[in-house]
Amino acid sequence: MTKNAILSFIVLLALLAPGAAIAHKASVYAFSEAGKIYVEGYFFDGAPCRGCVVEVRGDKGGSVLLEGSTDEQGHLEFEYTGTYPLYFMMAAGQGHAASFLLDEGQEGPVVKDLEDCSRDMEALVDAAVKARLAPLRAEISRLRAASERPGITEIIGGTGYIIGLAGIWLYFRSKKESRD
């Protein structure tokens, strides 16, 4: 192989590398509800981020307030009654990382003014609300994961891009061989 062919091949590989990196992109999402924080980690294809370390900070460069790992479904939950905003950093292995900012305005529905009701009634209402919202939260999480996947337009465009680059490379290679 000549130097130009090797250089062309390296350039072609460098151009294709970002597409491979996106295929394994990790994402993290968090929400607050009734004094608990719920964290969900998933990859670009919707697969859960299992056993990934999640650090929670008061701000992007601040000290770690809490650290935990996601379970087999990519979930992590913990009790939290502190202040917001919270900054989540998830290490998804092999250099993949994701972050999410949970602001106070994103706190989930919490029943706050039940002074006239007993604690048992408050617990029942909280459980009922949580049960009713669980399918909606799952659907939001699924839609969020699905929205990050490439569509048919991106797939066809990427394939055309690769074929075009290969054609350019072959054109220059054939010109070089015809000169030799």
What structural keywords apply?
3-stranded antiparallel beta sheet; Immunoglobulin-like; 180 residues; 3 helices; 4-stranded antiparallel beta sheet; alpha+beta
User: How many runs of DSSP E, i.e. beta strands?
Assistant: 7
The CATH architecture category of the largest domain equals Sandwich
Helix/strand class: alpha+beta
| Estimated helix fraction | 40-55%
SSE order, one letter for each helix or strand: HEEEEEEEHH
Distance between the termini: 13 Å
Tell me what the structure shows.
This protein is of the alpha+beta class. It folds into 2 domains: 3-21 and 153-179; 26-147, Immunoglobulin-like (Sandwich). Helix content is 43%, strand content 24%. The chain contains 3 helices and 7 strands, in the order H-E-E-E-E-E-E-E-H-H. The chain has helices at 3-22, 119-147, 152-179, and strands at 26-33, 36-43, 53-57, 64-69, 75-79, 86-91, 97-102. The strands form 2 sheets. The protein has a 4-stranded antiparallel beta sheet, with no helix packed on it. Strands 1-2-5 form a 3-stranded antiparallel beta sheet, with no helix packed on it. A hairpin with a 5-residue loop joins strand 6 (86-91) and strand 7 (97-102). Helix 1 packs antiparallel against helix 3. It is elongated, with a radius of gyration of 24 Å. Mean pLDDT is 78; it is low at 107-117.
Task: Describe the structure concisely.
The protein is α+β, with helices and mostly antiparallel strands and 180 residues long. The chain folds into two domains: 46 residues; 122 residues, Immunoglobulin-like.
